[in-house]
């Protein structure tokens, strides 16, 4: 929270400073704000900064504590490693915790042991996904039912997951979630349904989908040059440079993950043009919205940030004005949209029928209120928040917004 306040004070101080090159100044201002927020993020308050949390928790192991507390601390460290994608280290630590429990070094309930096997199984499934679907990605990866080139070549992850799920199902055979994941693990090995023990087998018809005749879509991202890897981001498909071809913009939720822009070459392939588009430094977007906010005929981009992070998510959104040639400039502060709130969703619409798109932003409130915002388009390239005046300054954990004539 203190880091957010520090950046807010800095931002407030520079908002009034003039810049000879306004476009460049606005973009530089935003990229600096985003970089400082990422640098000062607090791993204690932000539960998604898993690598930093591993470091912090590991430093506590040198302190005196009971055997039970130490074991729970080691388990937390293992879980943070797994969440950070450091799977083998997390699995090794979790396995040591399980061995300590099984050796009777600390007391543990049946439910705790069940949880450990479940956590290990999930970690091994993720290892299989990491080694196969990410590091050796194919166009069949991660698509249900898993078949063809989607079957894992590196099988350790799924094999070990099956071992742990089998142990748990022998104790709780009616656990449908565990049954489902066991069947998926066998499927990644190409051994479903025959390889699944009959008592735990889920019928193939469950995975067959409907009978509408719609054929399975084929993933062409790798051959098209847009197989970008990210985390829970947004996407926008639009002709951003006016050449009659649809381009692609994608964001990713990580605090330092870049917004990426792919230019359509017109032959079924794309070329990344992020730097040339002026988007370097635009980081951390969980969602994207597209609209022509200034009525110049070019579709602009809105980057939304901060969702799920509580007060650590007090981050600015970015309004990126399209120059019509495949380049963008950040106009957030000059348009009056600069504010620091956690948000996941927003929607453009002309709510007052004046021919100009307005913007509703649904913010996430937690310990502190973050009212929703309704920005009325002033028709001069700026917005003003009228949410309190029209009664839509709703306070809640908003995860969806939509306009409609009701």
What would you note in describing this structure?
- With 406 residues, the protein is an alpha+beta fold.
- It has 2 domains: 153 residues, Serine Threonine Protein Phosphatase 5, Tetratricopeptide repeat (Alpha Horseshoe), CATH 1.25.40; 160 residues.
- 34% of the residues lie in helices and 14% in strands.
- The chain contains 10 helices and 12 strands.
- The strands form 3 sheets. The protein has a 4-stranded antiparallel β-sheet with strand order 1-2-3-4, with no helix packed on it. Strands 5-6-7-8 form a 4-stranded antiparallel β-sheet. It has a 4-stranded antiparallel β-sheet with strand order 9-10-11-12, with no helix packed on it.
- A hairpin with an 8-residue loop joins β9 and β10.
- It is globular and about 70 Å long.
């Amino acid at each position: 929270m203190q880091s957010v306040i520090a950046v807010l004070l800095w931002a407030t101080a520079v908002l009034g400073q003039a810049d000879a090159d306004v476009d460049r100044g606005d973009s530089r201002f935003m990229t600096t704000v985003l970089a400082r927020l990422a640098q000062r993020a607090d791993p204690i308050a932000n539960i998604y900064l898993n690598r930093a949390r591993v470091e912090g928790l590991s430093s506590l192991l040198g302190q005196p504590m009971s055997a039970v507390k130490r074991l729970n601390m080691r388990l937390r460290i293992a879980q943070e490693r797994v969440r950070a994608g450091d799977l083998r280290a997390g699995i090794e630590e979790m396995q040591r915790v399980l061995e300590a429990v099984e050796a009777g070094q600390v007391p543990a309930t049946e439910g705790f042991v069940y949880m450990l096997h479940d956590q290990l199984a999930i970690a091994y499934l993720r290892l299989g996904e990491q080694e196969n679907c990410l590091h050796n990605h194919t166009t069949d990866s991660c698509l249900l039912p898993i078949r063809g080139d989607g079957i894992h070549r590196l099988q350790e992850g799924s094999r070990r997951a099956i071992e742990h799920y089998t142990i748990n199902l022998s104790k709780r055979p009616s656990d449908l979630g565990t049954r489902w994941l066991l069947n998926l693990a066998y499927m990644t090995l190409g051994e479903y349904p025959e390889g699944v023990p009959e008592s735990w087998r889920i019928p193939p018809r469950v995975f067959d989908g409907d009978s509408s005749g719609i054929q399975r879509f084929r993933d062409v991202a790798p051959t098209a040059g847009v197989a970008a890897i990210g985390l829970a981001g947004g996407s926008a498909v639009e002709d951003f440079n006016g050449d009659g071809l649809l381009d692609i913009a994608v964001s990713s939720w990580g605090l330092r993950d870049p917004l990426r822009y792919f230019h359509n070459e017109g032959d079924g392939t794309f070329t990344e043009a992020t730097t040339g588009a002026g988007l370097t430094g635009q980081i951390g977007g969980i969602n994207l919205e597209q609209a022509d906010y200034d009525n110049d005929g070019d579709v602009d981009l809105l980057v939304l940030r901060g969702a799920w992070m509580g007060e650590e998510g007090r981050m600015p959104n970015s309004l990126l004005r399209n120059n019509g040639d495949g380049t963008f400039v950040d106009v957030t502060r000059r348009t009056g949209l600069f504010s620091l709130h956690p948000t996941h969703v927003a929607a453009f619409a002309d709510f007052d029928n004046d021919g100009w798109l307005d913007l509703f932003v649904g913010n996430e409130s937690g310990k502190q209120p973050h009212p929703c915002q309704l920005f009325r388009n002033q028709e001069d390239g700026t917005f003003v928040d009228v949410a309190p005046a029209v009664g839509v300054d709703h306070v809640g954990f908003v995860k969806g917004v939509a306009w409609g004539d009701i």
